[in-house]
Amino acid sequence: MTSMTRWLGAAGLAGLIGWQRLQPRGAKHLGTGLSTPLYDFPVLNIEGSPPAVAASDWVLSVDGLVAQPLRLDRAAWLALPRNRQTVDLHCVEGWSARELHWEGVRVRDLLSRLRLPAEGRFVSFHAFGGSYTKSLTLEEALAPEPLLADTLNGAPLPPPHGGPLRLVIPTRFGFKNVKWVNQVEISAQPHNKP
To answer: What are phi and psi of 73, to 5 degrees?
Structure first.
């Protein structure tokens, strides 16, 4: 699949996705620092409304082709090594949110806790409810950039933006950055839904 074909497919998907704004369009405060309000930051999703699960009750499952699956409750999640990144979020619709300050756990640090089998060539990130899944190759997932973020601009990640846990991949358009991640699956084949 060529880059252009992928982009056109993503643009078509984005056209089907409804979006809303958290604050009036005229606000111009996005991306200028840690205390920046999230004004004018479009909220795009096809999963429906954010799940009605508090961050304190969120559980992340890491399973699939692994000898010992993980179930991380909030306390176990917060005990993992933390990472901070300041990156832009780009959308296929043509907008960008600049200099967002994300914090969470790098995917490669999470995967380092597993014994990965040779046939586990893909890492899939499932949104709560099972309606949305995107996959990375194992090599892509082990790069230093992919982050499972629970904090945005110094505050808990808001549910409309994917809280309590969102995948952030600075090298990919926003639609690959799965919101409300509650399962990470190691598999032999990619799983992408829809």
So the answer is: -80, 180
Greatest Cα pair distance in the chain: 52
Residue 91, pLDDT score = 77
Q: Looking at the domain covering 3-187, what would its CATH class be?
A: alpha beta
Q: Which of 147, 123, 159, 156 is nearest to 48 (CA)?
A: 159
* pLDDT tens profile 44-89: 666 667 888 999 999 999 999 999 999 999 999 999 999 999 988 7
Instruction: Judge contact between 50 and 159, C-beta under 8 A.
Output: yes
d(CA 65, CA 67): 7
Q: Kindly compute the dihedral angle of the four CA atoms of residues 39, 45, 49, 53, in this order, to the nearest 10 degrees.
A: -90
Strand, helix or coil at 11? helix
Strands (E), 107-180: 122-127, 133-137, 147-152, 155-156, 166-168
Nearest to 70 by CA among 105, 24, 33, 22: 105
The residues, ordered by sequence, that sit 6+ positions from 159 with a Cβ below 8 Å of its Cβ are 50, 51, 180
Nearest CA to 22 out of 50, 1, 47 is that of 50
CA distance 178 to 21: 19
